[in-house]
Design goal:
The protein has 481 residues and is mainly beta. It has a single domain (5-480), classed as Pectate Lyase C-like (3 Solenoid), CATH 2.160.20.10. The chain is built from 5 helices and 41 strands. It has a 13-stranded parallel beta sheet with strand order 1-2-5-8-11-14-17-20-23-27-31-35-38, with helices on one face. Strands 3-6-9-12-15-18-21-24-28-32-36-39-41 form a 13-stranded parallel beta sheet, with no helix packed on it. Strand 1, helix 2 (57-63) and strand 2 form a beta-alpha-beta unit. The radius of gyration is 23 Å and the shape is elongated. Its main location: secreted. Pfam families: Beta_helix. This is Right handed beta helix domain-containing protein. GO terms for molecular function: carbon-oxygen lyase activity, acting on polysaccharides.
Amino acid sequence: MKPSAFLSLVLVVQTLVCTTKTSAAIPKTKDKPRKYYVAVNGADTNTGSLNSPFQTINIALSHAAPGDQVLVRGGTYYQEVKFPRSGVPEKTISLQRYPGEKPVIDGSKITVTGWQALVTLNNVSYVTIDGFDICNLHSAVGNTDPQGMAIIGSGQHITVKNCNIYNIKNNTTLAQGRSGHAILAIGNGVKPISNLLITGCTVHDTQTGTSENVTLAGNIDGFTFSHNQVYDTENIGVIVAGGDGLNPHGAVESNYARNGIIRDNVFHHNTMTKTPETWGPDRFGAISIYVCGGANTLIERNIVYESDRGIGLVSESNIYPTRTTTVKNNLVYNCYRAGIYMGDYLNYTIAGTKNCAVLNNTLFQNNRVPGAFGEIEGELRLTEHCDSNVIKYNKVYAGPKDVMVHKYTLTGSHNLIDHNSYFSTGQPQWIWNSTNGAPITDFQLWKKTSGQDASSSLKTVSTKFYANLIRKWKRSPQSKI
């Protein structure tokens, strides 16, 4: 997530260049909105009508005034797209696919230098992009960052919907700065990015190295990420983050993503095991939904499975704790390690996880491999500096060699764990204030040792019970959450 100094410089230059272009002359607003058309067999000397389309998307956008639409016919466009200006309230500038056709913005003929995106929205507001495949941008050069889409600076009422973003890959090594993003949103302006909506999109088949597939970082105040699918990726699915890595000079009081919703998405196979040649055979560090120094985010009704970890409320920062975030009514199952993870990485940072709530989630047979210390991470994992968090009303279905709750260290205070329902097909286990100590296997002893779960319940069930539960979920997927 944290770029090198070189990459930070490139990003600043990129921002300045794009900002300069944004100040281009704005076409005079018309009383009646217009439609401009683009086709692979068009010509930029045409008028942009349906029968006389442009060939270049950027040419069409340069003509679009607030309220206008640019409709792109089916076909492959080997172009970088940059929105040159903003719409205004009630007059959005919209870049859309032509109904019933599939336009593809393809980066296979582009050489990536520095931080480079196929679609860039820089310091623009009241804009929409709808219905595109955005794909095939690769880099094999160190200190580069290929991106499907970059949303940079300040702006409001930005909508990205029904886009299919894939095959965005960095093939360099970790030592060379392997990094990339499907969607990178960095609020690095004085005013925030706000009213950002990403919906109905798919993100898949990516190699993002040490970065994330969808990044919401820096000065972002108000976002919704809903009804998307993120799958078959190398690392983190979506992150809500502080800006101390990507926007290191931002004002501390506003340099973090906040006031957002992550709802009704499906995440699966977000895992480092897809590229063992890069990460090694035993790395399982990817988190599908990750709040890292962000705040006041609602994470609800998502399904996460077959990933390294499910949901993380974790901070990699010494400045920004992950705080005031609610995780409720999600299903996390069959992940390699923890279902829900809270707290700092051990012996790494100190900001912690504060005032968060984990409510009414279903965790099912995660922890299929040991953690980094040979331990079982736990369906619910609490590491360092967890303070004033609430974990209640969750259903935890543990595997036969699983741990229900694992609190690693003596740090943290004023946390409440209660009214949870635990199910086990074997010997139930809990670990309290120990990274790799002997587990507690008696439920009453667990309550006494931890001072938690006073009103929680434990039920030993058969493997048939689990099998029936899975059959029920297959018949009615929405009954999972």
